[in-house]
Amino acid sequence: MGSAASKPAKAAASAAVRRRQYPKQASPSTTKTATVAGKRSVAPGQPAGSAAVPRQTGPVYHSKEKASATKSEAIDLDARDPHFAASLRALGPVTPFPTLSHSSTFHNPHNNNVNVNNPHSRPPQANPSFLILSSRAQLAREADAELESLGRASQQDRRFLDVVSLRQVVGMRERGVSDRVIERQFRLGEGVLEELGPRGVVGEAR
After folding, report:
1. Which DSSP state fits 128?
2. CA atoms of 148 and 158, how far apart (whole Å)
3. Where are the alpha helices (DSSP H) in 49-162?
4. Residue 78's closest CA among 90, 92, 66, 91?
5. CB count in 10 Å sphere of residue 158
6. Region for residue 17 given its phi and psi (left: phi exceeds 0; alpha: psi -120 to 50; beta: otherwise)
7. pTM of the predicted structure, to 2 decimals
8. Cα distance between residue 80 and residue 60, in whole Å
9. 182 phi, psi to nearest 5 deg
10. 3-state secondary structure of 158
11. Which residue ranges have biased composition labelled Low complexity (predicted)?
């Protein structure tokens, strides 16, 4: 019974093999295309069997100077870029933009009378960057003076806190300790802790 069922499958396979026939020679269109492509790859007046010679991109310059350990004037001139030098000569001398900076070393003989009331120039007292730097320097001087006076009888109430003390103060505020108790314990001036803002604004990172 099994052999009877396999007979139709064998017949179908043999029929497929008989129908699969490959051409014995190339078609004329394929042969013509290959011949034209072969003719194009050979330059006119060149033998068919020879390979194409690549064209030279440009002249090769060989310097007459020999290799030397010291840099002579001829080697220096040979290494320069003539196009870059020609561009610099065409550009000419560059005049810098006039500046009102007091630290500038540029001197403009054509503009000796600088207008002090120029709206684009600010005095040092009105410059935001200058104000920030001067305020930071002033606070640093006051903090150093307070640090030097620690432990003295003439020490006044503190205004500045180090990182360790500030962390302890923030922790005590989170536990509900009043600001007046904290200020007396750390010998802080009255109202120093108010600069930290209300409770909950500044917290201890865990």
Report:
1. H
2. 12
3. 73-79, 82-91, 128-148
4. 66
5. 18
6. alpha
7. 0.34
8. 17
9. -65, -40
10. strand
11. 1-16
C-alpha distances out from residue 72 to 54, 66, 75, 81, 82, Å: 37, 11, 5, 16, 18
Tokens 């394929």, residue located: 30
Residues 6+ apart with CB under 8 A from 84: none
Query: What's the rounded Cα separation, in Å, for the pair 138 and 144?
Result: 10
Angle at 197 between CA 196 and CA 199, to 5 degrees: 100
Q: What are the CA-CA distances from residue 160 to residues 144, 147, 178, 187 (Å)?
A: 10, 9, 19, 11
What Rg value do the Cα atoms of the chain yield, rounded?
46
In this structure, the number of other CB atoms found within 10 A of the CB of residue 206 comes to 3
Name the percent of the chain in helix, strand, coil, to the closest 5. 45, 0, 50
Tokens of 106: 């540029």
Placement of tokens 């503009």 in the chain: 111
pLDDT beneath 70, residues of the chain? 1-24, 26-65, 78-79, 96-125, 151, 153-155
Confidence at residue 47, expressed as pLDDT on a 0 to 100 scale: 53
**What's the token pair of residue 50?**
């020879």
Angle at 64 between CA 63 and CA 69, to 5 degrees: 85
200: helix, strand or coil: coil
